[in-house]
Amino acid sequence: MTDPVFFAPSRRYTAGEVANLTGASLLDAAQAEIAIEALAPANEGGDGALVFVDGKRNFALMQSLRAAAVLCPADFATKAPPGIAVLMHPRPQQAFAMVGRLLFPHAATPGPMTGETGISAHAFVDPSAHIEEGAIVEAGAVIGPGVSIGSGTVIAPHAVVGRSCQIGRDGFVGPGASIQYALVGNRVIIHGGARIGQDGFGFVGGAKGPERVPQIGRVIIQDDVEIGSNSTVDRGAMSDTIIGQGTKIDNLVQIAHNVRIGRNCIIAGLSGISGSVVVGDNVTMGGGVGLADHLTIGPGAKLAARSGFM
């Protein structure tokens, strides 16, 4: 069995370049030419690797580092072994992520799974769909009537985009995902198996059992949103379900009809948000959070994993 390298570095960076790009300060300017061509956790490191150390519980790692360079707070700097370029930064992990995006740009955004360009001969695209030049529709994808897809967006194999949906530019719709009754902004990533725009869970009691309430709203996904694999976003009953700009949603998250999520929120896996909940900007939810219907979560709130609110 071969051992493929899925993500090769774009090029080498020097410690001095990393300092300039991230705003870090080099402890020793003489180490500015040390080469960095890999990322690694601090407890592993390796030749040519950049690592980061942050937080008191990780302080002990500094003395046993084996790496080309380390990003760390200023008060950790003198504890690194000789020969390691020390890059002092108030937010080491944020700087580390920035370098990661430069070293491995193809890992930062999903791309075509088959290597195809343009519209595959094995995709179904309705003649009335408008697909901008530079978009990619891979084999097995289904694009319905009246759909609009922007340049740079990738529709992966067996994804389905239903009639009249609009998807902006430079986005990604993963394999087996489905989108219906939705407007999707630019640079939106929807991972494989996600379900967007199906009818919400709306029923009322009737003489013969539950009776369906028609769901005639939409899903609005603003720019720079990411939705994880096998997550679901139901369309609104009468008003729209809205996911605000920059929000990141993990795998296996349920978002019910009429929910309005603000900007730059983080929602971890297995969380469930019931109908008509309003979530403010910059809210963080740990894994498995449950929100009952019609709640309002204020801006900047942090909800612990497995917590429930009614």
How does this structure look, described?
It is a single chain. The protein is mainly β. The protein has 2 domains: 13-108, MurE/MurF, N-terminal domain (Udp-n-acetylmuramoylalanyl-d-glutamate--2,6- Diaminopimelate Ligase, Chain: A, domain 1); 177-309, UDP N-Acetylglucosamine Acyltransferase, domain 1, CATH 2.160.10. 8% of the residues lie in helices and 28% in strands. The protein is built from 3 helices and 37 strands. A 10-stranded parallel β-sheet has the order 8-11-14-17-20-25-28-31-34-37, with no helix packed on it. It has a 9-stranded parallel β-sheet with strand order 9-12-15-18-23-26-29-32-35, with no helix packed on it. A 9-stranded parallel β-sheet has the order 10-13-16-19-24-27-30-33-36, with no helix packed on it.
Descriptive key words:
single chain; 310 residues; mainly beta; Udp-n-acetylmuramoylalanyl-d-glutamate--2,6- Diaminopimelate Ligase, Chain: A, domain 1; UDP N-Acetylglucosamine Acyltransferase, domain 1; 2 domains; 3 helices
Short characterization:
By secondary structure, this protein is mostly beta strands.
